[in-house]
């Protein structure tokens, strides 16, 4: 039987995809051996080969040898240790089932015997201990613990891993997070036909309170932002969990808001979580508290644009009289760099609230208050607003004025070209002016701009097709690199009517 095998390796990670097109079990072990000789630096391939031997060839001994060889090449690879650990537990589980079946059938095992050490998962324990000396970090311990929990004969092993975790990483937030969350699984009621909904709600409330008791101890023992983040994340997860009990939902909300307040009072609430806190407060119409929290956030993170933006959005949503004052405070605090989000928010708010004169003054102020790179966006917005509120003649004057101050974006010029084309008496002389201005800035980096200019001369009633040759010659001189070839290709298509 012929074997067809396709293997793909990813240089960005360990991922190896195996596609078996025709089954040839007796050959595949040899194929894996050959592949591993060529690619011993791929942990995923070692794992795949070992899984093949264990699950398809039913050879735990071959799988074990592969893992041991792999660990000589990758002695500190967490994934290899995890899968080796899992394999030994699977082997132990399989032998336990076999032994039980033999005993139930009252068969004489003869010389065949089962090792109590293997049956109890001692091989996995040895692997864990060896790995724990080489691999540092809570994540590995939690990973092997989650694997061990899949097997019902590993209570002692789980206890050892847990004790090691608490001894070595007592100050790690992830350790406390695990210890708190495990309270959800401890002592749960067995559902019976006599278990009422009220009993279930009461029992869930008690379990969540036990979790929170551990978290409260955690934030006292490890008073860090990361620890509070774990606590708040847990509370958010429970709050977002669906329940038909209004009492439980209210309890979760009160707990959530209380934890946010405690973290804030400790000055350890991470910046990113203020937004979620405010969303909760606004959702439940706690407007006074939301205003207070938003102000406190900008005091804690006074150089954060996001915090000022969030505070301003709260004030705008509440239609507060303090919006303008807060905008002034924000831009004064932040100076110019990175303030574009504040200025865009300010002018957008002003458009719907203030007079046209005030809004225009604000746009003009923003051009000087932002960095040159950020002022590009404000110029585009100013041009668009002027056309919507002042009409064609006004936007032409503003455009001419804005052209005196670099830098610009291509969209700035294209917007003015589009405005001109929307007029009933669209004049080619004006379009030429806008295209020429745009080409002075972007003629060396945008081939489509030249092509659009040529098409305009060809299609506009006032256009001059005889200008196209000159435009083409200038484009060939100004465009750089591959853009010349791109322009020539598109220009040829244009000439033949295919563009």
Put the structure in a nutshell:
The chain is 72% helix and 2% strand. It is mainly α.
Care to describe what's here?
The protein has 499 residues and is an all-alpha fold. Helices cover 72% and strands 2% of the residues. It has helices at residues 25-38, 43-56, 60-73, 78-104, 116-119, 122-134, 138-148, 155-168, 173-181, 197-221, 225-240, 246-265, 271-283, 287-300, 305-317, 323-334, 340-353, 356-369, 372-402, 410-421, 428-442, 447-459, 468-478, 482-495, and strands at 5-9, 16-20. The protein has a two-stranded antiparallel sheet with strand order 1-2. A hairpin with a 6-residue loop joins strand 1 and strand 2 (16-20). Helix 3 runs antiparallel to helix 4 (78-104) and helix 18 (356-369) packs across helix 19 (372-402). The two termini are 55 Å apart. Residues 1-22 have low confidence and may be disordered.
SSE layout and pairing:
Elements: E1 5-9, E2 16-20, H1 25-38, H2 43-56, H3 60-73, H4 78-104, H5 116-119, H6 122-134, H7 138-148, H8 155-168, H9 173-181, H10 197-221, H11 225-240, H12 246-265, H13 271-283, H14 287-300, H15 305-317, H16 323-334, H17 340-353, H18 356-369, H19 372-402, H20 410-421, H21 428-442, H22 447-459, H23 468-478, H24 482-495
Helix pairs in contact: 1-2, 2-3, 2-4, 3-4, 4-6, 4-7, 7-8, 9-10, 9-11, 10-11, 11-12, 13-14, 14-15, 15-16, 15-17, 17-18, 18-19, 19-20, 20-21, 21-22, 22-23, 22-24
